[in-house]
Design goal:
Layout (H helix, E strand, L loop, with lengths): L3 E14 L3 E8 L2 E7 L18 E7 L5 E10 L2 H4 L2 H16 L7 H15 L5 H15 L20 E3 L4 E3 L1 H4 L8 H12 L7 H7 L3 H16 L4 H15 L2
Parallel strand pairs: 3-5
Antiparallel strand pairs: 1-2, 1-4, 2-3, 4-5, 6-7
Helix pairs in contact: 2-4, 2-9, 3-4, 4-8
The structure holds zinc ion (ZN).
Zinc ion binds next to helix 5.
């Protein structure tokens, strides 16, 4: 007998699968899940909408095979306001790209799913998407177990208040050790970065994002280098966007 279970899922990516079908990768409260969506590649098919990246689904699926099939399904959120805005879409793709590369976070799967959904909800109505991306990326470092140390100097282990962030030292270095360590941010930028890392998602509003956004370019650069240094990760989405920006500068 075929058993079915109902679940929530965010479509992360879609690949062609056999004739007219798609293979979707979902993030769910129980981790990642791949499912076949029958008919998704047919032009007028009802199931076409279920195979679009960045779509929140409520669904059921078969459970009798290694690779199961989506059965009942309803779209809970198309994230239209994000998809209609290229700047928001860029940030959404950068988020999905990071989620795609990350293995299941196991015991934290439900927490992580909620974290992603909450971040996307904030992204819908913000003027500061880059700042939101920085918050997501910093908090993700904690879930990945490579979180930087903000409260204790990674070199002397003493509590640190007004230190400077160092990618190499993986945290905030005290003023004494900053003299002999390569640091990457000023004390003010470091303070802002710590705010981004520690703020609870339900405390984030436009006023907070506006306060931090003047610092965000340098902070984002440091986050990218941190990901490269400790996770060997380079964002393709960001590389493409940098190339486009360079190209636009060259066009008179
Ligand atoms: Zn120190």
């Amino acid at each position: 007998m075929m058993k079915e279970r109902e679940s929530l899922g965010l479509v992360l990516k879609t690949n062609d699968y056999q004739e007219n079908a798609a293979l979707i990768s979902l993030l769910t409260p129980k981790g990642k899940l791949n499912l076949i969506v029958r008919g998704a590649k047919k032009i007028n098919s009802k199931t076409r909408a279920f195979a679009m990246p960045l779509t929140l689904l409520q669904f059921e699926h078969t459970t009798n095979r290694e690779l199961n099939t989506l059965t009942k399904c309803e779209v809970l959120d198309y994230y239209s306001t994000i998809k209609e805005n290229p700047q928001l879409m860029f940030v959404a793709y950068a988020l999905l790209e990071k989620i795609n590369l990350i293995p299941s976070v196991e015991q934290d799967d439900a927490l992580f799913f909620q974290f992603v959904v909450d971040t996307l909800n904030l992204l819908k109505n913000t003027k500061y998407p880059e700042t939101l991306l920085a918050i997501f990326e910093l908090k993700l470092l904690y879930l990945l177990g490579v979180n930087p140390r903000f409260n204790q100097c990674p070199i002397c282990n003493k509590p640190v208040k007004d230190g400077c962030f160092s990618v190499e030292a993986a945290g905030v270095v005290c003023s004494m050790d900053a003299m002999t360590t390569i640091t990457d941010l000023s004390t003010n930028h470091t303070k802002m970065m710590k705010y981004l890392y520690t703020i609870k998602l339900d405390k984030i509003d436009e006023a907070f994002l506006a306060l931090v956004s003047p610092f965000i370019e340098e902070i984002n650069d440091v986050i990218d280098r941190y990901y490269m240094r400790y996770l060997d990760f380079t964002s393709k989405t960001k590389l493409i966007s940098q190339k486009m920006a360079n190209l636009q500068e060259k066009i008179p």
